[in-house]
Amino acid sequence: MLAFLCNWAAYRCYMGMCRGGAEMPSRPIFPIKVPCSGRVDPAMVLRAFEKGAEGVMVLGCKERECRYGPGPRQTERMEVQILSLMRILGLEPQRFFAATYGFHESERLLEDMHAFVKGVSKLGETPLKSV
Predict the structure, then answer these.
(1) How many structural domains are present in the chain?
(2) CA 74, 77, 78, 79 torsion: positive or negative?
């Protein structure tokens, strides 16, 4: 599992969880800090799947908290592109998750991570792993 985390709200929530001793999901989620979730390109997500990621998350700031302005809107557009490409590649849409968080929503982020890992675990190995 891989998570692209916006440097601001999402990453702050993630670090708060880690420092607070939260019970992390049973399968590891490897965090990648990015300046803005809007800068995550569909090619980056597809490359993660190609390299064997079972699931990919793109986690950003809420609309009014984004330091770069259009980041959340760009992430929404990118999500549509990724889901379309995933269908073409035969990947289940449940393997991708995008969401926005406020600076103090660590608990919500933790719940979403647990739900995502649980959902992806039910799917089994990615069909791209054998490619």
Answers:
(1) 1
(2) positive
